Amino acid sequence: MVQNDTPWWDDYSDQPYRLAPGQKPGLSFSGVKEYLTIGMTTVLMSAPVLWRYFRLRPQRPLADPQKFIGLSVSPDPQHDSAILEMLDELGVQEVLVRIPVWDLNRLEEYVRFVERLGGRNVLINVLQDKESVAQPNLWQTRVREILGALSPRCSHFQIGNAINRRKWGCRHSGEYLDLLEATDTLRDEFPGVEFIGSSVIDFEPLVTARTLWNRRHYQLDVVSALLYVNRRGSPMSRQYKLFDLYNKLRMIYAIVLSGNRNARRLWITEFNWPLLDTRPYTPNSGHPDRTVDEATQARYLKQYYEIAYATGWVEKVYWWQLINPGYGLVDHRGGQLRKHPSFFALKDLVHGGLHE
Q: Does residue 82 have a pLDDT over 70?
């Protein structure tokens, strides 16, 4: 994987380190204001969202499996050729590539990697950091650089990642909306580009509603959700005794249908199950109640795709990611590439498994 020389980034698990108690920002006036706005948004949107939620029924799937099943990959000079070979073996045509705004000195390397992906559809996920969140103009400049390097080869760009987790840079959802407004002004410079958000991780419908229904100045061409389910169980496990994967998708799609800042399109751009005893590649590796074995990961992967596909509400679903011992489809430790059972489960789905 491309290594980042930032002290707050964990290269093993591909995410920021958890914030220590002393690093967590205190509650500010803007934060209080934002939380009150979320509360008001919840009150105003509850009726239309619940009305749509209870009326929603599964519909015909929106895409064939090769357009529905996506996979995240990261450039790695040691394994780039193997990545291409494995993508060919899997038959995956929908690929997500992350580009951090703090890593633009390597932008040419990312561009070369994307070019090697050939005719596959590539979604670029632009990652934010605290510096860019604090300076939306700087964020705009960096996003412009990424768009200039990759458009029109890539037409879809996800704006931000895990925006409801402070370790990713946003103290609250209002700061993310500032980034969306700064990004939306670039549309005239890059016609044909579509912006994707709001990149909320896990099941937090109140934050999702806030990012999709407001009076701010932006428009999302596709709604993205990083929808993990209960890590202690299958996609059929229920959160709050009600929301299994099916009902989580139902609620999120009801919010999508009710929003005024978005098109009525939903993509799931990140999910996985972390594996037991894979430290340091997943922080939860030592907790059996928060991880699964390899066979279970493969089974849950298939169930997730099958459930999401059958609803007809979701256009694409991306597994995060191809190579990572802690949660990926392939283990690269020891210099060898060992394919997990989940690799073959995904391959089966792409090659007709969703139609069975």
A: yes
Quick check: helix, strand or coil at residue 1?
Answer: coil
Q: How far apart are CA 8 and CA 355, in angstroms?
A: 43
Q: Which of 215, 214, 213 is nearest to 254 (CA)?
A: 213
Distance from C-alpha of 346 to C-alpha of 42, rounded to nearest angstrom:
37
Burial class, 122, CB count within 10 angstroms (exposed 0-12 / middle 13-18 / buried 19+): buried
Angle between helices 173-184 and 29-55 (to 10 degrees): 80
Residue 321: asked if its preceding bond is cis (omega within 30°), the reply is yes
In CATH, the number for domain 30-355 is 3.20.20.80
Q: Are 226 and 200 in contact (CB under 8 A)?
A: yes
Q: Which residues contact 122 (CB under 8 A, 6 or more apart)?
A: 95, 96, 97, 114, 153, 154, 156
Q: What is the pLDDT of residue 1?
A: 47
Task: Choose the weakest-confidence range: 24-33, 206-215, 246-255, 339-348.
Answer: 24-33
Strand residue runs (E) in the chain:
9-10, 15-16, 69-72, 94-100, 121-127, 156-159, 194-201, 222-226, 266-268, 316-319, 330-331, 338-339
3-state secondary structure of 354: helix
Residue 26 φ/ψ, nearest 5 degrees = -70, 170
Which DSSP category does 128 fall into? P
Output 272-279 pairs: Cβ under 8 A, ≥24 positions apart: 272/228, 272/297, 272/301, 272/319, 272/320, 272/321, 272/327, 272/328, 273/231, 273/297, 273/300, 273/301, 273/327, 274/231, 274/326, 274/327, 275/325, 275/326, 275/327, 275/340, 278/325, 278/326, 278/327, 279/326
Q: What are phi and psi of 277, to 5 degrees?
A: 60, 45
Against a cut of 0.70, is the pTM above it? yes
